[in-house]
């Protein structure tokens, strides 16, 4: 319980407000007649005082409108004492209590009925235009007490919708301006009848729905938790933590839960099967805008639709104290992993509450912070290593790691594995664990994936499931290439395992990068078409014996013709369009792989060679890039004239 607020001084106001406020007075000293609440109080009667609490006033009006329509007592029943009908009533002592849901639980805020008065002897707080009802003034006082005073930070919305109707096929929205000196306004496209009717409706604005869409960024909707039959609540804390090498990435700031779907309604409607998860950050400092939170959801142990995951990105972090995630589980889903994360304000302990609402039976389990064995690697996504999702040829450049799950004596069953990557809150991330023998991978198909985090998710990706003993490749990727971030990768398992970074393709080798195009005559196609010599041809000079490897890629990932790169001895092996000698090295036939065509790593002696790049069909135009890796010495390569 919070003590009675005795405003003996005016420090609860800003400097500007103090200059216009003379005193605090009881209603009997200010109003000829008054009551707490009656059915005559309407949303349009509520006016905003000197506090910049437009969002609070908007909430009052919405509560009143809801009560007028449905007799719900929404917001009205928060003020005590009450009569036998549950309506707030006068207390001769001038003392009242207000019930407010704050930081995850209901709080009782005790106040008296003294209200701030301006120089012109008018109320400086929220009030009733008719000067009769005290409900808005008293509830606002309790809320301002909870927030430390009337010096309240301005928040959206500055106006609110009170009615949406259709007039002759035209959708019209009625908007309330709660300022005490509000004026009547009608948008330019509104009817003359509307304009005449609203001349005396103080603070009312009638706007076409199209005008609303043109001039407002968003609409905020409230929802009633009582529409759900099941509810779970968890209260927790993000502890203070030290920074790690210039980042705010710390596994202690990620709390993981398992949502067990026990008995959801057997309905084809996603809305009826959905589970709503609400994360609330407890507010200690109302001016805190540096703490960002997120509520991530991942299907646990599920096979995600690979192609759709490439196109989807989940929500970002928010510095709002409330984050709502609506989850529509797949029909066969049994459980979902929830990860709640915090970034920023590392030196401040932050408490939170997690609410889970559903129409069917679910269970919320707190997953232990760590499995027996855990390895964390700190790494970065740079311009070189941020390759984007698997639809890009640069996917192969993403950070990759050899994951070896050690066999357990006397057991061939799989073991649980959890993988978490956390990076910048502005970068969407993904984790894939791939069957590959532990080698670096270049192209991914759905059948290659042993474990995956699902859709790309801002700031954090999480994958959990069961893996058998063996060698795997773990890939951390961004949604688009060139998205840069430091990140921490944590892998956990109850059994021993090894995790080590895999070198990039061509690591430790000299690199030459050649850009070119197939266009017009140079789009000659394969040797069987008779014009092979017209394809882009490069002269390669090797100064001494070295190992070489060649990779050919399309620049545009949407253009995927089958391509080939072949290396011949010089002089030119082509006469009249026919190949005289077989190539010394080549990519295996023609391929349309996203990563392009690559040769094996082979030894070349000192000398001159010819490199020809081609497509499987003539007249296929497009830009390409050719990478030439050399182990011992740099080589010279240029386009043959």
Automatic annotation (TrEMBL):
<dbReference type="InterPro" id="IPR022684">
    <property type="entry name" value="Calpain_cysteine_protease"/>
</dbReference>
<keyword id="KW-0378">Hydrolase</keyword>
<dbReference type="Pfam" id="PF00648">
    <property type="entry name" value="Peptidase_C2"/>
</dbReference>
<dbReference type="InterPro" id="IPR001300">
    <property type="entry name" value="Peptidase_C2_calpain_cat"/>
</dbReference>
<keyword id="KW-0645">Protease</keyword>
<dbReference type="GO" id="GO:0004198">
    <property type="term" value="F:calcium-dependent cysteine-type endopeptidase activity"/>
</dbReference>
<dbReference type="GO" id="GO:0006508">
    <property type="term" value="P:proteolysis"/>
</dbReference>
<feature type="domain" description="Calpain catalytic">
    <location>
        <begin position="23"/>
        <end position="169"/>
    </location>
</feature>
<protein>
    <recommendedName>
        <fullName>Calpain catalytic domain-containing protein</fullName>
    </recommendedName>
</protein>
<feature type="active site">
    <location>
        <position position="54"/>
    </location>
</feature>
<dbReference type="InterPro" id="IPR036213">
    <property type="entry name" value="Calpain_III_sf"/>
</dbReference>
<comment type="similarity">
    <text>Belongs to the peptidase C2 family. PalB/RIM13 subfamily.</text>
</comment>
<dbReference type="InterPro" id="IPR022683">
    <property type="entry name" value="Calpain_III"/>
</dbReference>
<dbReference type="InterPro" id="IPR038765">
    <property type="entry name" value="Papain-like_cys_pep_sf"/>
</dbReference>
<dbReference type="InterPro" id="IPR051297">
    <property type="entry name" value="PalB/RIM13"/>
</dbReference>
<keyword id="KW-0788">Thiol protease</keyword>
């Amino acid at each position: 319980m919070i003590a009675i607020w005795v405003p003996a001084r005016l420090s609860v106001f800003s400097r500007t407000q103090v200059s216009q406020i003379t005193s605090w007075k009881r209603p009997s000293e200010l109003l000829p007649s008054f009551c707490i609440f009656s059915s005559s109080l309407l949303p349009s009667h509520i006016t905003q005082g000197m506090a910049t609490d437009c969002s609070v006033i908007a909430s009052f009006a919405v509560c009143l409108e809801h009560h007028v329509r449905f007799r719900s007592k929404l917001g009205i029943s928060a003020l005590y004492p009450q009569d036998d009908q549950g309506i707030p009533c006068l207390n001769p002592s001038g003392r009242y209590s207000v019930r407010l849901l704050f930081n995850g639980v209901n709080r009782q805020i005790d106040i008296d009925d003294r209200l701030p008065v301006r120089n012109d002897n008018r109320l400086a707080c929220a009030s009733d235009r008719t000067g009769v009802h005290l409900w808005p003034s008293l509830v606002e006082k309790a809320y301002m007490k909870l927030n430390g005073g009337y010096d309240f930070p301005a928040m959206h919305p500055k106006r609110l919708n009170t009615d949406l109707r259709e007039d002759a096929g035209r959708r019209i929205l009625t908007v309330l301006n709660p300022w005490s000196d509000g004026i009547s306004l009608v948008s330019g496209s509104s009817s003359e009848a509307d304009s005449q009717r609203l001349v005396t409706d103080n603070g009312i604005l009638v706007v076409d729905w199209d005008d609303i869409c043109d001039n407002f960024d968003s609409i905020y909707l409230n929802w009633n938790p009582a529409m759900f039959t099941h509810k779970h609540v968890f209260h927790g804390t993000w502890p203070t933590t030290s920074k790690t090498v210039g980042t705010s990435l710390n596994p202690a700031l990620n709390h993981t839960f398992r949502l067990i779907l026990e008995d959801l309604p057997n309905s084809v409607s996603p809305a009826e099967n959905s589970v709503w998860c609400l994360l609330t950050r407890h507010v200690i400092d109302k001016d805190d805008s540096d703490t960002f939170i997120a509520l991530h959801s991942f299907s646990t142990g599920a096979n995600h639709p690979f192609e759709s995951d490439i196109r989807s990105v989940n929500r970002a972090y928010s510095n709002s104290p409330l984050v709502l995630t609506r989850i529509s589980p797949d029909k066969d889903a049994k459980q979902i992993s929830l990860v709640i994360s915090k970034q920023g304000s590392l030196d401040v302990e932050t408490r939170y509450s997690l609410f889970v609402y559903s129409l069917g039976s679910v269970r919320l389990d707190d997953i232990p912070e760590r499995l027996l064995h855990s390895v964390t690697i700190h790494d970065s996504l740079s311009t070189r290593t941020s390759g984007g999702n698997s639809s890009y040829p640069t996917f192969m450049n993403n950070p990759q790691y050899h994951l070896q799950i050690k066999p357990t004596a006397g057991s061939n069953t799989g073991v649980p594995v959890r993988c978490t990557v956390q990076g910048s809150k502005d970068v969407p991330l993904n984790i894939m664990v791939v069957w590959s023998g532990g080698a670096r991978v270049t192209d991914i198909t759905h059948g290659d994936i042993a474990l995956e985090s699902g859709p790309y998710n801002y700031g954090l990706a999480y994958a959990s499931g069961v893996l058998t003993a063996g060698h795997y490749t773990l890939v951390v990727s961004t949604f688009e290439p060139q998205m840069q971030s430091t990140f921490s990768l944590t892998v956990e398992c109850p059994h021993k395992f090894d995790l080590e970074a895999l070198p990039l393709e061509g690591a430790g080798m000299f690199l030459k990068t050649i850009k070119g195009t197939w266009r017009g005559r140079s789009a000659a196609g394969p040797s069987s078409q008779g014009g092979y010599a017209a394809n882009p041809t490069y002269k390669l000079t090797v100064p001494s014996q070295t190992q070489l490897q060649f990779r050919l890629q399309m620049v545009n990932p949407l253009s995927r013709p089958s391509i080939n790169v072949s290396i011949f001895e010089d002089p030119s092996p082509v006469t009249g369009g026919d190949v005289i000698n077989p190539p010394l090295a080549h990519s295996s036939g023609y391929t349309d792989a996203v990563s392009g065509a690559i040769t094996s790593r082979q030894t070349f002696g000192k000398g001159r060679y010819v490199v020809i790049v081609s497509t499987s069909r003539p007249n296929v135009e497009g830009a390409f890039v050719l990478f030439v890796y050399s182990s011992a010495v740099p080589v010279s390569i240029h386009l043959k004239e």
